[in-house]
Amino acid sequence: MLDDFLNQFLPSTVGGLVFGSIYALVALGYTMVYGVLRLINFAHSEIFMIGTFTSLVVITAIAPASPLTGIALFGVMLLIIVASAAISGGAAMLLELVAYRPLRRKGATRLTALISAIGASLFLQELFALVIIPWLTGKPGRNQQSAARIVDRDTVFTIGNAAVRTDHIIVVVAAVIMMIALDRLVNKTKIGRGIRATAQDPEAAVLMGVSIDNIVRVTFLLGGAMAGVAGALYLMEFENTVFNVGFVLGIKAFTAAVLGGIGNLRGALLGGIVLGLIENWGAIFLGSQWKDVIAFTVLVVVLMFRPTGILGESLQKARA
Amino acid sequence: MKGNGVTGNANPLRRVGALFDGAREWWEHAKVWQRYLVYLGAIVFALILPAPVIGEFMSPGSDWTTVLIYPIGTYILLAIGLNVVVGQAGLLDLGFVAFFAIGGYSVAYFGTQYGWNYWATVVFGIALAAVSGVILGAPTLRLRGDYLAIVTLGFGEIVRITANNSDEIGGARGITNVPHPTDMPSIGVEFGVLPAPYYYLMLIAIVLVIIFSVRLQKSRVGRAWAAIREDEDAAELMGVPTFKFKLLAFAIGAMIGGLAGGIYAGKAVFIEPNTFPFILSATILAAVVLGGSGNLPGVMLGAFVIAWLPERFREVGWLKDALGKDPAEYRILLFGGVLVLMMALRPEGLLPSRRRKAELHEGTGGMGTMGAEVAGPDTDVSTTEAAK
Q: H-type helices in B166-295, by residue range?
């Protein structure tokens, strides 16, 4: 048992970092929306799913005969990331407009909003399975759809017995760049100040001239764009997607957000990486079919013993 | 965008709802004998419901009695159970299907492996479901409502994946040859392939659970739940041991879920992990919310509609042609849309409980508002003000 663990420790760590980066990007959306609205945006996982399908369509349109390298690879990666971020961000704003804004206007309860979110999530999944995926790909909507390979699986270097490949590096580096960009945006710009102000005290923010509607819209846009990037990276790494790809991944990303401290952007990064690692290390002992159970158990345990997460909740000052 | 467009009184959902409001108004003022007449009528109606004449219209394509057992009866039973948790105590449970699974699996496992009597396995399944409700609830019920929702969702998935990965209980292949309920020759009841006895078994279970649930609601326990739902802090200050009562709600909801699982397994003969997906939890939640969470007739109506409509539309020829596939395929799409619409237009459901309706229109139920404490310049306050 211990031998197994030592043998697989490093490869699992690499896998955990790759998964963790994607969890972290999706977790950002949960954490930002929760910070501003105190709402678990259950349909966020579908925004991620939309990102994977946008990338699928773009890659299929480009149809590379063989994996790309150099400047071509960079260009195509940039294209699928930008396209996915744009479509997912737009979808997230639309979601806010349709499913949450009417409730916000009426001052609905959080539970009402969560039920609306679940409804929106089911609706989007089924809309894709029944209408959009067959229309985009011409294949049955509930089947797994695979994309062409755009990045070669070359080993760049090895640490012990773990091979670090090109695609691993791209996912982790791209995720970290996006995180830093978002962190700068929230902490240094005017719109970021508005987001932080609203998260801290919406009433005071309104009095200071912040337009809550705009802030909420931007929050959804940014969170959605991050989920879109996550979708692009996911598709590039795993090369397939399905209409309910977001379901389990979404819960795990939410777990990551809670683990790091919901409302805390850096916490989302930390939570995502930690969850990815725990899940992969745990799978060495129990087998990979128990991965999801490990992740959900982590969620329950964290909420029991430290509901504010590792880094605490910082986008907002106090909890409602 | 102004909210008026969607919140005006002209929307059809409101009008359907107003119709039900009238019926409830009558019920509130009805005399005792009138009420008993209605109860009697309902029972007689339920007894003759499997009649082929009714079935011809209700489900022309498949056996009506079978449809009445699953999905309709099972959904109603589950919805009554979930209503205790969501409607009465105000706790959002997204993993309710776990208890259904636990009830079903204990009947299947102890029946096939140890040859226990069916009724014993059902009772054991109910007990097991209650225990697992307490085990899940004890650490998590101190959390805020929305966190609780996600944790219960995780629990539902844990149960399903565990069943899938455990070879002892059949793994992904499930359990076959689950024993039928024990025959009762003294009263001439035989549980075989014919669906009718199962229907009456289900009916008895539903009636008993309804009586249990109504008695609870009117007792001290029910009042405590209502207090917790409306304002947990205030309830605690008034001396309601909120944690204990929330745990009780969880356990009772779980027991009803377990009972539904036991009856389902006795009829189905075969169960597998995929019988218990998350989507079933969401469907039952949709039923409770659509009908009017907290109000039993409403919840049952919601469950009936959600279980029956897809079965019925499956048989509508022109709809099938127009869509190019089985109309029942669209049911989850529809549920999702309905949930979003209901929350925007009539969050209290079609047939709400009076108390619950007042709470929802107050704007700040026990859960706190979603970041909209601030009335912006164009906030539509008319709906909230008017309802007070």
A: 196-218, 220-230, 232-237, 242-268, 278-291
